[in-house]
């Protein structure tokens, strides 16, 4: 299947040119539309320290928005927990949902630029949820080249969830490995 669009991100073009054909040949699909595809990427970070210092929320918002190129949504506490000095409605986290071309561009930068910058990197554990979706925990947001260590307020982590249209983990893992995700064997 040769689908050419000049304004598509590089990884999306590769998906249409090569990966759909690999799915058809490996899994004996009858229709190219049966091949799983990426639906969205969710990026979230929890900031429990924001209860004491609201400046942490602002600096981390700037960092995550630089990484994703899109505005973030503030997550609020649902319940009050007195031992953590947390009240219902306080800001405690950030999240971003990427779709379409921004999703493809972020995944390309994540796989090819950010992951090789992780210290002692030996691959990603395959954390699938049973429906073909993969969640990856990142311990340091400074692996992204957009983040300057001096401007960042300490080292924070984030969760990246890649949502696919597949209904089986094996399809999701095959899709991500074909896109270049370095899984541990």
Topology:
Layout: H1 10-27, E1 38-46, H2 55-68, E2 73-76, E3 91-98, H3 100-114, E4 134-138, E5 158-164, H4 169-179
Antiparallel strand pairs: 1-3, 1-5, 2-3, 4-5
Helix pairs in contact: 1-4
CATH superfamily: Ribosomal protein L5
Instruction: Kindly state the number of beta strands.
Output: 5
Number of helices: 4
**Quaternary class:** single chain
Q: Label the overall shape.
A: elongated
Spatial strand arrangement across the major sheet = 2-3-1-5-4
What percent of residues adopt helix (DSSP H or I)? 25-40%
Query: Would you tell me the structural class of the helices and strands?
Result: alpha+beta
State the CATH architecture.
2-Layer Sandwich
What is the average per-residue confidence, as pLDDT, rounded to a whole number?
80
Termini separation: 30 Å
The low-confidence parts are: none
Q: How do the helices and strands follow one another from N- to C-terminus?
A: HEHEEHEEH
Strand proportion, as a percent range, falls in 15-25%
User: What is the class in the CATH system?
Assistant: Alpha Beta
Using the coordinates shown, work out and report the CATH topology. Answer: 50s Ribosomal Protein L5, Chain: A
Our count of domains comes out at 1
Q: State the major sheet.
A: 5 strands, antiparallel
Whole-angstrom Rg: 18 Å
Write up this protein.
- The protein is α+β, with helices and mostly antiparallel strands and 185 residues long.
- It has one domain (36-179): Ribosomal protein L5 (50s Ribosomal Protein L5, Chain: A, 2-Layer Sandwich), CATH 3.30.1440.10.
- 31% of the residues lie in helices and 18% in strands.
- The chain has 4 helices and 5 strands; from the N terminus they run αβαββαββα.
- The chain has helices at 10-27, 55-68, 100-114, 169-179, and strands at 38-46, 73-76, 91-98, 134-138, 158-164.
- Strands 2-3-1-5-4 form a 5-stranded antiparallel sheet.
- The protein is elongated.
- The model has no long low-confidence stretch (mean pLDDT 80).
């Amino acid at each position: 299947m040769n689908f050419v669009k000049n304004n598509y991100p590089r990884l999306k073009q590769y998906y249409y040119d090569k990966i759909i054909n690999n799915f058809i040949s490996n899994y004996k699909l009858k229709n190219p539309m049966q091949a799983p595809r990426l639906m969205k990427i969710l990026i979230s970070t929890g900031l429990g320290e924001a209860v004491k210092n609201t400046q942490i929320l602002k600096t981390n918002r700037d960092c995550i928005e630089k990484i994703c190129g899109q505005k973030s949504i503030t997550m609020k506490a649902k319940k009050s927990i007195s031992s953590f000095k947390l009240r219902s409605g306080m800001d405690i986290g950030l999240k971003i949902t990427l779709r379409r071309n921004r999703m493809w561009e972020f995944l390309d930068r994540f796989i090819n630029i950010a992951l090789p910058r992780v210290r002692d990197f030996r691959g990603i554990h395959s954390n699938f949820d049973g429906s073909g979706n993969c969640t990856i925990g990142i311990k340091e947001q400074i692996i992204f080249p957009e983040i300057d260590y001096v401007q960042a307020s300490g080292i924070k982590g984030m969760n990246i969830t890649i949502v696919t249209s597949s209904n089986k983990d094996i399809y999701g893992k095959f899709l991500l490995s074909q896109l270049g995700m370095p899984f541990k064997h």
